Amino acid sequence: MTTRILKLWAILTIVAPMASGSHTVFAQDSAEEKQVSLYDRLGGLAPISVVVSDFIDALMPDAVLNANPEIDAARKRVPAPYLKYHVTALVCQATGGPCQYHGRTMKEAHGHLNITEGEWDRMVTIFKEILAKHKVPAKETEELLALVGSTKADIVVSKDDK
Ligand code: HEM
C-alpha cells in the first residue's frame, strides 16, 4: 500500500510538471499561429488596392522615370488599371493574403525596360512617400520595402550611365 502511494506520488511529481510544461509549449504554438499576417495588418485587400492605385498614379507621370524611353513607351502602351490589378494581386499574395498572382515574372515584365539603379531609387522614394501619405506604420513599411527590395535583382538590368 505504502509502495503504491509512493509510486503514485512519484508519477504525479514527474508527470505534472511535464504536463504543465507542455501546456506552455501549446500556448506558445497557438500564439505563433495567431501571428497576424502583413496582409491583415495592412487592413486587407481594400486598403492595399488603394495604396497600389495611388502608387501607380504617382509612378506613371514621373519625369525621372519617363526620361527612360523604354519606360515612357511602356507607360503609354500599358493601361494603368491593368498594372494596378496585377500589382495589387502580387502584393496581396506576397503579404499572405488570399489572392493569386497570375502575371509575368518580374524579369519578364521589366527586362525590356532597361531600368537603372537610379530609376529604382526613384521608384523607392515614391513608394515611401505613398506609404507615408497613407500612414502605413514603420514596421509594415519596413516589411513592404523588404518585399519590394527582394525583386530588385530581377528588375534593375542597366547601368546608370547607359
Ligand atoms: C523602377 C521600378 C519599376 C518600374 C519603372 C516599373 C514599370 C513597369 C512597367 C512600365 C510595366 C509594364 C511593362 C510592359 O508590359 O511592357 C510594369 C509591369 C509590372 N510591374 Fe513594374 N516597375 C517597377 C518596379 C516594380 C516592382 C518593384 C514591382 C513589384 C514588386 C512591379 C510589379 C509589376 C507587375 C506585377 C507588372 C505587370 C506584369 C505583367 O504584365 O504580367 N514593378 N512595371
From TrEMBL:
Which species does this protein come from?
Answer: Rhodothermus marinus (Rhodothermus obamensis)
Q: Which residues bind heme?
A: 86, 110
Q: Please tell me whether the keyword NADP is annotated for this protein.
A: no
Cited Pfam families:
Bac_globin
Identify the stretch annotated as signal peptide in this record. Answer: 1-27
Keywords of the record, alphabetical order, are: Heme, Iron, Metal-binding, Signal, Transport
**Protein's name according to its UniProt entry:** Group 1 truncated hemoglobin
- GO molecular function terms listed in the Swiss-Prot or TrEMBL record: heme binding; metal ion binding; oxygen binding
What the entry lists under InterPro entries is as follows:
Globin-like_sf, Globin/Proto, Hemoglobin_trunc
Superkingdom of the source?
A: Bacteria
